[in-house]
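Hi support team,

I submitted a single chain yesterday and got back a structure, but I'm not sure I'm reading the token output correctly. Could someone confirm the output below corresponds to the sequence I sent? I've pasted both exactly as they appear in my results page.

Thanks,
R.
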Amino acid sequence: MFVADVIAGHGVTPFLQAAHKAGCPTFDGVGMVEAGIKLMSDFLLGQQSAGRAANR
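Hi R., thanks for writing in. Yes, this is the structure output for that exact sequence:
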């Protein structure tokens, strides 16, 4: 089982600690925020991300 936490800016939350202790791979909210910042900046600067360009 893979466990993700969308709480950004709080490091490893108790939820992620418990999942890690149980042997689950984990992902915190920082990656989601970084991806969102990239998408927003591309949109505001009029650029297309590689994924969106490939879908056209």
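A quick pointer for reading it: Helices lie at 14-21, 30-44, 50-54. Let us know if anything else looks off.

Best,
Support desk
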